[in-house]
Each structure stands twice: as C-alpha cells, then as structure tokens.
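QA checklist item 7 of 12: single-chain prediction sanity check.
[x] sequence parsed
[x] length recorded as 99
[x] structure emitted
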Amino acid sequence: MEPKDSKDKRYINAKGLIESGDIKHFRDIFLRDIIKRNRVAKDLGFNFNRFDDLVQNTDGWILQDIYRMAALFEVDEKVMFNLLHDQRIADKQHKKKSS
C-alpha cells in the first residue's frame, strides 16, 4: 500500500460522511461519487469486476477484506461491517417489495 501521506484524500472525505451518519449503506459511497470504485479496488488489490460485484451484492465479502477496507477509510471495522450489513438488509427489503 502507498505511504500514508500519499493516500487519496477522498478517503478522508468519505470517513467524515460515514462517521457523521450521512452515509447509511456502503454503496452510497460510490453512488454519491465520493471516491471511485476503481480507486478502492486498486488500493485493496481487487480486480475491478470482482469489487463491483461485491458493491452490488454484499454477500461475498470476507471479514479480512472488510477489515482492510475499514483501514483504508480509517473507520472502525464494525462501522464498515455495519455499512455492508445495512446495505444487505435494505437490498433484501427492496427485493421483497418488488416481488
């Protein structure tokens, strides 16, 4: 990973929005264009298509990667987990409504 000083400043912006409660679901980080998916995918060492799939369907995340992502955004690991979990619940409720 890059040295801390050269880290993309958009992670700091996202952190503030996450900690303020303005971001409710993980996907919101990308829908609001706070930081690009390809930047986060690259910083995590993920293939972009794989990362994009995980943004759309949170079931594929493993804890180790959630922890690494929390470190990128400099937020508590449980906060990142909760963003992903809340997105999963919202997606399930949306699917029920559209059925």
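[x] summary fact logged: Residues 25 and 82 are 8 Å apart (CA to CA).
[ ] second reviewer sign-off
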